[in-house]
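FORM 12-B: Structure-to-Sequence Request
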């Protein structure tokens, strides 16, 4: 089933025993899975099995349990590997036999998920939805719906500005809409430029990685500042990046596996996730403490009004940060 077809069914209130979301748009896979699970749960708890946690036996065990507080069991599953057909059929069949149970599968990565579609048919009251790369007008429509939901006063061309600023990354655009929602004013491209950190000609991930590893970033800093990013905004972005590395480092130490969805709240391409994990493990707890303290002090200095030449001072402090 295509996205538009499913939207019509969902809006009509049609419910299935089992749902299967996969395709090229990981953000939509994630958001649709969460949206459907929440609607099915109707305020009750949602059972979850993510990646390495998932097994057929455990899924069926969860779905077979009775609850004192709810008649239904809603199970949200997130996987990045293909599930064998016989095992998948057991899970779907268990929901079909007990209409109080529902399972929602969200698939991420490059595995052969298309072959799993055959387990989700009308015969078992289940549905498979494949997401394809969005056209620009579709992305703008989705952003517009989100803006309306958040009651943000923003024109269509300004939404397009936000989307293009993030190099057409829907997840980042959604994240910034949530931030902009707290402003009690009309949101324009000027507001977005001042409040949001976009992805311009400089690859921000490359810049942050080079900065943390002590490589030469003089040209990157110059280009970023030339594009209109102010020094304080750049400190915010660096601080956020270091905090994310700390969360990855801590999660790996606690659980021994990389679950980027649990850490960040939205999926990342596998290569980027692995690169972030590799970078995070190069540092110790004291390193993160020192970096974050340094950045907080730098932010305070820049906001104090005592620095005359902010640009020069900022660049010299970043060099010291690298040392």
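FORM 12-B RESPONSE
SEQUENCE OUT:
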């Amino acid at each position: 089933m295509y996205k538009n077809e499913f939207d019509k069914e969902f809006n009509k209130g049609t419910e299935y025993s089992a749902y299967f979301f996969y395709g090229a748009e990981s953000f939509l896979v994630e958001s649709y899975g969460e949206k459907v699970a929440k609607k099915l749960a109707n305020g009750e708890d949602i059972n979850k099995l993510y990646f390495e946690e998932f097994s057929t036996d455990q899924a069926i065990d969860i779905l077979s349990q009775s609850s004192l507080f709810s008649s239904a069991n809603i199970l949200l599953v997130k996987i990045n590997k293909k599930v064998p057909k016989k095992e998948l059929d057991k899970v779907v069949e268990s929901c079909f036999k007990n209409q109080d149970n529902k399972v929602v599968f969200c698939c991420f990565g490059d595995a052969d998920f298309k072959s799993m579609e055959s387990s989700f048919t009308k015969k078992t009251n289940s549905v498979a939805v494949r997401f394809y790369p969005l056209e620009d007008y579709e992305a703008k429509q989705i952003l517009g719906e989100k803006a309306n939901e958040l009651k943000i006063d923003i024109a269509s061309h300004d939404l397009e500005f936000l989307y293009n600023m993030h190099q057409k990354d829907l997840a980042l655009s959604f994240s910034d809409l949530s931030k902009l929602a707290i402003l009690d004013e009309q949101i324009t491209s000027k507001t977005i430029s001042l409040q949001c950190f976009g992805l311009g000609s400089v690859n921000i991930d490359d810049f942050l990685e080079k900065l943390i590893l002590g490589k030469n970033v003089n040209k990157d800093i110059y280009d970023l500042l030339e594009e209109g990013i102010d020094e304080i905004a750049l400190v915010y972005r660096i601080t956020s990046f270091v905090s994310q590395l700390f969360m990855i480092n801590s999660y790996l130490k606690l659980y021994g596996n990389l679950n980027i969805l649990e850490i960040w709240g939205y999926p990342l391409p596998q290569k980027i996730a692995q690169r972030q994990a590799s970078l995070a493990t190069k540092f110790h707890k004291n390193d993160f403490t020192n970096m974050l303290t340094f950045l907080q002090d730098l932010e305070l200095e820049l906001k104090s009004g005592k620095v005359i030449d902010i640009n020069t001072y900022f660049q010299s402090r970043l060099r010291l940060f690298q040392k």
